[in-house]
Design a protein that fits this description.
Layout: H1 15-39, E1 52-54, E2 56-57, E3 83-86, E4 97-103, E5 107-115, E6 139-145, E7 152-158, E8 164-170, E9 174-176, E10 184-190, E11 193-201, E12 215-225, E13 230-233, E14 250-255, E15 263-278, E16 286-299, E17 304-312, H2 338-341, H3 344-347, E18 364-365, E19 383-392, E20 396-405, E21 414-425, E22 429-439, E23 444-455, E24 460-471, E25 476-488, E26 492-501, E27 511-512, E28 517-526, E29 539-542, E30 545-552, E31 559-573, E32 578-590, E33 604-616, E34 623-634, E35 637-651, E36 654-668, E37 673-689, E38 692-701, E39 706-718, E40 721-733, E41 741-752, E42 755-756
Organism: Runella slithyformis (strain ATCC 29530 / DSM 19594 / LMG 11500 / NCIMB 11436 / LSU 4)
Protein name: DUF5916 domain-containing protein
Pfam families: DUF5916
Amino acid sequence: MIQEGNANLPPRLCPISLHCMNYTFTLAFCLVSFLCFSQDVLLFKPDSVRKEFEAVRVSNNLKIDGHLHDKEWLLAKPKSDFIEIDPRQGELPRHRTEMRALFNQNYLYIGVFNYDTLGKKSIRVIDFKRDFNTRTSDFVGMTIDGFNDRRNAMVFTTNPHGVQRDFLAFDANYIDLDWDGLWRVRTSRSDSGWVAEFAIPWKTLRYAKSDSTFQSWGFNLNRSRRMTNENYAFSPFPRSFNVLRMDYAGIIKGLQPPPPTANVRIQPFFLTSYDRYRNIDGRKPHDGGVKLGGEIKWAISSRAVLDLTFNTDFAQADADRQVNNVTRFSVLFPERRQFFLENASLFGIGVGPASDMSGGSIRIQPFFSRKIGLDGGGNPIPIDAGARFVSRSAKTNYGAMYIHQRGTASSPGTNYFVGRYSENLGKQSRLGALVTVKSDTGNTNIVGNLDGFVRFDEAHSLNWMLNLSHDSKGNVTGAAGAAQYFYATNQWKIWWTQSLISQSYNPAVGFISRTDVIGTTPGIFWFYRGKHIPFKKLIRSFEPSLLVEFYNQASTGRLIERSYGLSPFWIMLQSGGFMGHIMTPTYQYLTEPFSPLGVKIAAGAYNYTRHAVYWGSDGSRKLSFTWNGEYGTYYNGKLNTTNLSVLVAPIPHISITGRFNRNDFRKVGVNATTKNVDLVSVEGRFAANPRLQLIGFYQRNTDTKANNYNIRLSWEYQPLSFIYIVFNKREFLSTTRLDTRSQEDHLIAKISYLRQL
């Protein structure tokens, strides 16, 4: 039964009933955990004797062409004793992988032959996007732990067409996906399989200074054969983990790297632009200009890096996509600007649906870089200068960032500071602190954070954080925090998260999805691959789940939201496709009205149930799709939502994706509104090779009748040096003139040049 209006007061939870509720969940949680201990036999500890892979010294520089034809490769010692990780954990792979390693005074060379009985016919690659999606492509990648502390990893990955993917990882939890290192890879394809040839400069790698003649580093190599969705590794790890778990890695020995020394990368740029505005207050109809700026990266040592940016520009950054949001909570748009993306994992701790500490619809992020250099609408605010210093080692990690944002007619000049320190404790634990400061002429906001991570053993871990904020204007102080226990094996993933955000908590350089809330969000997934699964050639696993969310108003203790996300049917296919259904009975008490997509919903108590059906095909094929349809009651009416995405990639050089989102309201809100709101988008990528690409997207929103598009030509004319030509068009309703459409167009040309000294 649906309830509506202020007259229907929500139930208050007395301390006894709240205690009983938590006791019931705790009891259930303990029972399930006991079952986990009794049933899990496939999770194994790291081998006490690490697998070894030896590198051989050579004198000459190799020709990197993806063929391994240089005579020096005959001196290398091949290694091919790989183990299958998924789906047949622990078995010998059906397709052989052979790797070799060489080095000289300049480079570490890795050559990998990925044998395949079907040769080129088995290869799956859908596009040439850098940092490509490894779930939709064949790939081979290595993890290198130069400090040999079994926690840190530099990751270098490629696919059969030589597309690069690189990032930094820490404790297999924090990842700098947008770190771009200076390295080279080329590939070749034949009837026997495909070959990847890597050349990684010592200056790109991070490693400890040593007095020993030879060094041994943590090392693993991971291969995916996407056609059959198989995964192999040099040093095995449980299939519920990933190759980033460096405590499971082997070692590469016999290395003689030069002593780590300081090196400098400079990257100046020149930009020219033409801008056109229509019906935008404070803007000339036509504008333009030129801009000079750049960045300097000084690797003071293998541990410490200083980044400087001057007259910063992000014209080449991918534009934000529109989102039709039907929830009460703010949408977190991703950071896309390179300066802020690098080393983001050191500063980017947080709680939220996409983080390790899943908090349901609660998100706490003490530092969020999009609060710098962008206004509330995502429009750029000039950044005059900035600096970032980061130091990482086997024991400690610390860093600081300072940014000066130029004053404009709508905002004063602002100084931003972020400081971070964390210390590794034991084998897999960590304690850290973070502080952010935003200071302008009207207010100084300070946020302090303490956080910790404890990995008790291979399966059990605890994550926690505590925040305080203070604003000098009004002398206002607030608090937020969260703690999560997490259990993961091959059969189970179980967590329990407690979150709190006070009414006055204000992270001015961070992000929160809501305030004045206490969240209790346990969850459980079961992964079954036993002998009773039918159609085993088609179905890989059965994965039912239960996600429970309770939210109380922090200031009153009142229950304001409750939901149970029950998914008794969810299957993963051998191809990587999936099918599933989630039913979510929900109770909400709105303390104030809100208007999703212009549909006004009154404050009050509501009970409704949503259903969601998901279906996705093999994403590595030339034609693939994902679809989910949500239906059911929604507050005092009904809402049917359709999300469809279709990918067409006839060859890896051409990739086109079409997306369609429809929200169909039926008698919803105070006006019993019935309407459809559609959001249509098309994205295309046309690549001559991984270094020369034309990328574009178009979106149309029927609610605002807005047409937005972005077209970007990108040419990496030498490693990490680019020429960009960018065109942006954005339409929106004017905020100052009712029923008036505003438009802005930008044509930008930019050239950057990277020089490593």
